[in-house]
Amino acid sequence: MTVKTGRSVGGPENYHADSDQWLFVVGGTGVVTVDGDTQRIETGERHGIENDRNEPLETVNFYTPPR
């Protein structure tokens, strides 16, 4: 996923009801609304990602069924 400069994805109402999400930053710098550089976003956990820099923020996202 690429988040363009000054843009964001997700937000306070964003969650995945049927899967956990793993997020790996592979390029750029941004702000995630939950703590950590490598962040597991659990099923149903609301989250968002914001690019606050002048370069694209690139991530690789994996989704897994809940445990």
Automatic annotation (TrEMBL):
It comes from the Archaea. Residues 1-60 form the Cupin type-2 domain. It holds the Pfam family Cupin_2. Gene3D superfamilies: Jelly Rolls. This is Cupin domain-containing protein. It comes from Haloarcula terrestris.
